[in-house]
Amino acid sequence: MGDIQEVASVQQLLDAADDPFLRYDIGPESATALPAWSCGTASAYLRRPPHRRGLSMNLQGPPDDAFPLIAALPDLLEYAGTTHPGLTGLTLDAHLAAAARSRLGSTYRVEVMGAWSWMSTHEPVAIETPWRLAELDDTSDAAELLAFYGTANPSAESEPGEGTSQYWLGVRDEGRLVAAGALHTTPAGAPHLTGIAVHPAYRRTGLGAAVTAALTNEAVRRAGVATLGVMTANAAAIALYRRLGYVVAHDWCSHTLTR
């Protein structure tokens, strides 16, 4: 495998490249990520994506370091799959995706699931808003939240009432919930913004920015960092997050694998 080295911990990957996704989504102490490999500042490791069963192999890094890992990808997947039969996904930095699909084409059926960006910030947000935000309860407000998401965004990763949200914020107008969002916790223990949605009749009023800013401030207050994921094609949302201080760490492309 050339310069590829199997590593015994995520901390070893972080020692080679202090990557925010590895630090705040996977976590230095994660056992789920093993087996894992490094090649220069590139790495390949296992991850259990939220809202999905099974495991995904992530592969990231600059092309020169990552291409040996891509060349070895069939062997890495075979090796990891012997002890992790639930390994059915592959997520790569987008600039590596085409090469990986080409390398695996004779062994796997590789289908693109979607392109998404992972962002983070360490800074609180200063924002003025006329909207009054209030904390919601995951249990007692679950029915109202479910009805709201059914209209505002049925595909939002919100999960009210399931105990996965540690903190909820919402905005009501004349008693009706018109915006909401939540904080989940990554496997590494970092706050992760999710389920940010605005009722269609209230869009372009600054509500999305207000909820995002307030959740960001709560996350930074709790842990010194806020993280989020967004579909890469959602240029308007990415532009908003950038204005609020977020930086893209990875533009990912996720796939399903069938032997």
UniProtKB/TrEMBL annotation:
Organism: Branchiibius cervicis
Pfam families: Acetyltransf_1
Cleaved signal peptide residues: none
InterPro entries, per the entry: Acyl_CoA_acyltransferase, GNAT_dom
SUPFAM superfamilies to which the protein is assigned, alphabetical: Acyl-CoA N-acyltransferases (Nat)
Family matches, as PROSITE patterns: GNAT
Protein name: GNAT family N-acetyltransferase
Location of the N-acetyltransferase domain: 129-259
